[in-house]
Specification:
alpha+beta; 9-stranded antiparallel β-sheet; 24% helix
């Protein structure tokens, strides 16, 4: 518990600094905007470059793994071009968010300018464009299983099968610029899809 609290506090201290860092790119970062929607939507997700750390770890240690990535942003002074994101290669939906026994393979990631180079444990991951079934989860992370269930039911009813990963994009959550109230947190869950 002490380690998780320390990692969370580090994230709170690092985010303001990381958000003000300079970029190697001459283009300014686009504004951090997100258009909300209701229900499940099918959309085309654009290609982007992500700074990532690949881990085999529990979902409970997700904040600590993000803290490692945030430290790299502070040291490298790399510009953050979007929202925090996790790409899971194992299905996270059946696990409670405090599960500290089941290891999953996942990437903790942040969008960066196209000319960014990695260093040390931080690698660059060029994510190709894809079509995804998406749902917005409003509220604390503890209720994410229900949002995953609704998304999977929609996919089955509409003749889609899932692609190779699950993605969570944290539009707002625990952090210095986001709502303190967990009921106001917003996460987009994306599952790449293809027709059966």
């Amino acid at each position: 518990m002490k380690k998780a609290l320390a990692a969370f506090l580090l994230v709170l201290l690092v985010l303001p600094v990381a958000g003000c860092s300079r970029s190697r790119s001459r283009k300014p970062a686009p504004p951090r905007k997100f258009k909300e929607y209701e229900g499940v939507v099918l959309k085309r997700v654009k290609a982007e470059r992500l700074a990532v750390i690949r881990v085999r770890d529990t979902i409970a240690r997700l904040p600590e793994n993000f803290a490692r990535l945030f430290r790299w942003f502070v040291v490298s002074q790399t510009e953050i071009r979007g929202f925090n994101t996790t790409i899971f290669f194992d299905d996270p939906s059946p696990l409670p968010r405090d599960d500290d026994t089941t290891p999953l393979t996942y990437l903790v990631a942040m969008p960066v300018p196209d000319d960014t180079l990695g260093a040390g444990e931080v690698k660059m991951f060029d994510l190709d464009a894809y079509t995804a079934a998406c749902i917005l989860h409003r509220g604390p992370y503890t209720g994410m299983g229900e949002s995953y269930r609704r998304l999977k039911e929609w996919m089955a009813a509409n003749g889609y099968e899932r692609g190779r990963f699950f993605r969570e994009i944290y539009i707002s959550g625990p952090g210095p610029r986001d709502p303190v109230d967990p009921n106001k947190w917003l996460t987009e869950i994306q599952i790449p899809v293809r027709r059966k």
